[in-house]
Amino acid sequence: MSPVVESDQDLTEEAFAILRESLPPHKVARLLSLWQIGKDDYVSTRLSLFEGETVESLYDQAIKVAET
Asked: What is the pTM of this model?
């Protein structure tokens, strides 16, 4: 089975919808002000976070978490 990967825009819209449903507006605004794009080197972080992982292994881990 091949996972469906949504666009960055779709993911962002979904995340904002969840935030708006779950938090009051002042907390959403505060959280967004804390997020600063370009602050860290994502490539280095990604390589260390996902070292030795594959799409399949990450998918399997996500399924296990979802089942708990």
From this structure: 0.43
